[in-house]
């Protein structure tokens, strides 16, 4: 199968996923308690004023009509206007997106730079005390709630020692705590997958043959082990994109980082349907796009995958 056809098939598979996510998102957001019209009008507003606002927003229409109107607006490239800020949703997302991108890249860089060496080191010495310690710490890191880690970091490094700021995004120092906190969400699973993948490849026939031919251990590791071990590692990195985006919501809220995660929390509290829908739809789109790119990378590394 050609690469272009493979890419087109992956995109076609992604369309039903995106539509399904939009339906679930639309229904769940409207199941939240609270009336956006009442919040806009204020607690002292008359019922007729609230009803007028509800009619202006289209909230008095049947749910399926609201969804059809929303889908038609999306197809026209119109994500709506924020009820809280009074500005286009896409403008609010684009204003906050750079902060989330910086945080995600920093967290991913920290996680990869720590997880890959630890996983490989643990796999090369599978029965050593170091390997057991790395496995234990990986399991603990993958189990501890991220908001608890963030609060502990704030208490230690911001409150007690006053080494780092606890909130805001005014300088690179403000990035350290949220980036490390978000990275810890990824390090545990990525280290364990790296260890398991490298161990699996180390026992394969082609690696045993390479060692028996007298190749240097470094050459065997780089050319024969890591190259074949990267496919499941790339898989978990793609899957962890969802954890990264979901963790960003919690991390940005804990550290008052002005990204789309904290913006999503604010929009849900305010019952800002257009803004919340736009952010969730954007996150789903990014997640699906990254997974398509991961699939394409698979097919490039191992062309046999195209025919599966």
Question: What is this structure, in a nutshell?
Answer:
It is built from 12 helices and no strands.
Question: Can you tell me the CATH architecture of the largest domain?
Answer: Orthogonal Bundle
**Total count of helical runs of at least 4 residues:** 12
Computed structural class: mainly alpha
Major beta sheet summary: none
N-to-C span: 10 Å
Describe this structure in words.
This protein has about 300 residues and is mainly alpha-helical.
Q: What topology does this entry show?
A:
Layout: H1 3-30, H2 36-41, H3 47-57, H4 63-75, H5 89-124, H6 129-143, H7 146-160, H8 173-202, H9 205-212, H10 217-254, H11 260-269, H12 273-301
Question: What key phrases describe this protein's structure?
Answer:
single chain, 308 residues, mainly alpha, MetI-like fold, 2 domains, flat
